[in-house]
Design brief:
- The structure holds two protein chains of two kinds.
- By secondary structure, chain A is of the alpha+beta class.
- Chain A has two domains: 204 residues, 2-Layer Sandwich (Cytochrome Bc1 Complex, Chain A, domain 1); 208 residues, 2-Layer Sandwich (Cytochrome Bc1 Complex, Chain A, domain 1), CATH 3.30.830.10.
- Chain A is built from 16 helices and 15 strands.
- In chain A, the strands form three sheets. In chain A, strands 11-12-10-13-9-14-15 form a seven-stranded mixed sheet, with helices on both faces.
- In chain A, a hairpin with a 5-residue loop joins strand 1 and strand 2.
- Chain B is mainly alpha-helical.
- Chain B is 57% helix and 8% strand.
- Chain B has a two-stranded antiparallel ribbon.
- In chain B, helix 1 packs across helix 4 and helix 1 packs across helix 7.
- The radius of gyration of chain B is 18 Å and the shape is globular.
- Chain B starts with a helix and ends with a helix.
- Classes of the chains: A alpha+beta, B mainly alpha.
Chain lengths: 464, 180
């Protein structure tokens, strides 16, 4: 019996588009269980799917000194053995209900997330519970994932762009600051991690009071509460003492540093300084200012370096938003012989955005873009769950997403100028170049007052 | 051929062999025998003539192409000999259905799917029957497909082998770590 879908002779008449509707972020409710675990539920019953994200206050910025990378390792290990099942068996359980689960930790949180058919939600949540409450951290898997991270670091160091990112963080933050080294840990710190350190970190940071369960999709608030109470309600334990560790401290001296890659035909450039914490009141002004400066393809820095001068295929700027002050960075890759000229143009653009108001056209372009892409970002239940997770992680106002477009449209050319003058600091800029010191050191020394340091890819200073 | 009953059986068969980490190829070649770095399968979704079911497996640095090819054939032979179980079919169908629904969430993917069915079959609403077509697939149908189509005489192998080049130090170190 072969049934084939045959073309119809008469296609159905084409529907005509209706007027665009206004956009609202899905409504959601919060609830706290008896044991202190919080829930955020956004019923979005469009399709029979539910996304769950468990957000745990167990990111890299909560690590103790000497344990860099333990947060990322702990989160990954949740999937490698729990409730009597090894990693392969856990994978199998998730796939049998049609899904796969992800677990990882970044600077501010550890997250466990998945999307599943609504009819499979109870089984999915029971598995997530097993990961969060009953992980086993098998020795063999600890060793394997450490090896994987070390291999990843080796690979990253072989790529100039990744090497520049890592060395830029070292140049921007004080050596004692957690943000100075990668969230996943550096080679020495990862080598020093042990199963006991992982277990200790887990015991301290993974608690009902540090955990928020986010639901988005075809689920009612009542059902989410009932399921979470049934499966997680008896999880007990208080959170350990908070770590008071310098996260975003910066040294005061400006730095011009070249990471030596002899005969490199290209230079990877990173220019910037310590930025702002996510909850800063100037968030919207800074976001629009950055969009004009270097956040969009049509931004000033890209038009200058790419279109006007032809130094590069692309140049961008960004504020990395974290709980504490993440970096502000301008990044590009240019031909070695124009390294000095490119740096000069970047410094010029920073000066320009600080010295005069942007044009109304520039403002409208940036705000229309930010305003316009906003609704398409939250089409999926997974994206809605991520947005709500960010609300939790950064403790943002309840109406943040509903107000977003209006706040963007409220930014003016004056407030952009003010944001540039207050939050871009030419005197604090760190200039980091991965490239050939023989070609780039002299031009760089001419631009900036500061002496040019030359270091090896491992960060050891060498005579210039 | 895309859209036929046999297509859905083939697609489920492909998912059993190569969709996600619990699939046969991933489980046997990547996890257990550790001779492959990656393994997946896909169909071309052709609406005319015979479609292709492709198994795409990447060797680990220390595995020869011939060894990997032999191992892949063994897995296909095993499927041809012993067939698949109802459990495996259920896993594959649930995974496919979830992926289908996830894809329908975004306007772009939705438009792709509608235009696919409108272009191929003149009926965009066929997108609504896809989950049901997959749910109808049984182990018997997958096994009938495998018997009819996955015999040795119906297979072709394509090996992409890297040219001998000097291995960069970082890559060599990586390969050594991998073989530990």
């Amino acid at each position: 019996m072969t049934r084939t879908m045959m073309p119809k002779s008469e296609p159905a008449p084409r529907p005509t588009p209706t007027a665009p509707r206004s956009y609202h972020f899905p409504t959601f409710e919060r609830h706290t269980l008896q044991n202190g675990m919080r829930l955020v539920v956004a019923p979005v019953p469009k399709l029979p799917l539910v996304s769950i994200t468990a957000v745990v206050d167990a990111g890299a910025s909560t690590e103790q000194e000497g344990q860099d990378g333990v947060a990322a390792l702990t989160a990954q290990l949740l999937l490698e053995g729990a409730a009597g099942l090894d990693g392969a068996a856990l994978t199998d359980r998730f796939e049998r209900i049609g899904t796969s689960v992800e677990a990882h930790a970044d600077w501010d949180a550890a997250t466990v997330s998945l999307t599943v058919l609504a009819e499979r939600l109870p089984e999915a949540l029971a598995l997530v519970r097993d990961l969060l409450r009953d992980p086993e951290f098998p020795d063999r898997e600890v060793a394997r994932l450490k090896d994987e991270r070390l291999a990843e670091l080796l690979q990253l160091h072989a790529e100039p762009g990744a090497l520049a990112d890592e060395q830029f963080s070292r140049a921007v933050y004080a050596a004692t600051a957690r943000y100075a080294s990668p969230a996943g840990g550096s080679a020495p710190s990862v080598r020093a991690l042990t199963r006991d350190l992982v277990r200790g970190f887990y015991a301290e940071r993974y608690r009902p009071t540090t955990t928020t369960l986010v639901f988005a999709g075809d689920v009612s608030v009542e059902r989410a509460i009932a399921l979470a109470s049934e499966l997680m309600g008896d999880w007990q334990g208080d959170v350990g003492p908070m770590i008071t560790r310098a996260v975003d401290a910066a040294p005061v001296t400006p730095i011009v540093r070249v990471v030596a890659k002899a005969d490199a035909p290209q230079s990877e450039l990173r220019i910037g300084h310590v930025g702002l914490p996510r909850r800063h009141p100037d968030y919207f002004d800074v976001t629009v200012m950055n969009a004009v400066l270097g956040g969009l393809f049509s931004s000033r820095i890209n038009l200058n370096l790419r279109e006007a001068h032809g130094y590069t295929y692309g140049a961008f700027s960004a504020f990395e938003w974290r709980r504490a002050a993440g970096p502000f960075v301008i990044q590009t890759a240019v031909k070695s012989d124009v390294t000095g000229a490119a740096v000069r143009e970047i410094l010029h653009e920073i000066e320009r955005v600080r010295s005069a108001e942007i044009t109304t056209e520039e403002l409208t372009l940036a705000t229309s873009y930010l305003d316009g892409v906003f609704p398409i970002r939250y089409e999926t239940t997974a994206a809605i769950a991520t947005a709500l997770s960010n609300l939790v992680i950064h403790d943002l106002p309840e109406h943040f997403y509903d107000d977003y477009r209006q706040r963007v449209r409220g930014v003016t050319t004056e407030s952009v100028l003010r944001a540039a003058q207050q939050h871009l600091h030419p005197e604090q800029l760190r200039i980091l170049v991965v490239g050939d010191p023989a070609v780039v050191a002299t031009p760089l020394a001419e631009i900036h007052g500061a002496p040019v340091e030359v270091v090896t890819p491992e960060g050891v200073e060498v005579a210039a | 051929m895309f859209g036929s009953d046999e297509y859905y059986a083939a697609s489920v068969c492909g998912a059993i062999l190569g969709l996600k980490k619990g699939s046969r190829l991933h489980r046997r070649l990547v996890r257990e025998r550790q001779i492959a770095a990656e393994a997946q399968s896909f169909t071309y979704d052709l609406t005319k003539g015979s479609d292709l079911l492709v198994l795409d497996v990447t060797a680990r640095p220390e595995t020869s192409a011939e060894e990997l090819e032999r191992a892949v054939h063994e897995e296909v032979d095993r499927l041809w000999d012993d067939g698949v179980t109802a459990d495996e079919v259920a896993r594959a169908v649930t995974l496919i259905e979830t992926e289908l629904l996830v894809a329908l969430q975004s306007a772009g993917d939705r438009a792709d799917k509608l235009s696919l069915f409108a272009t191929y079959f003149g009926d965009p609403s066929l997108v609504n029957s896809q989950a049901a077509r997959y749910r109808e697939v049984t182990a018997e149908r997958v096994n009938a497909f495998a018997r009819a189509r996955l015999g040795v005489e119906n297979r072709a192998s394509l090996l992409y082998v890297p040219r001998d080049t000097e291995v960069a130090p970082a890559q060599r170190e990586l390969a050594e770590m991998g073989s530990r």
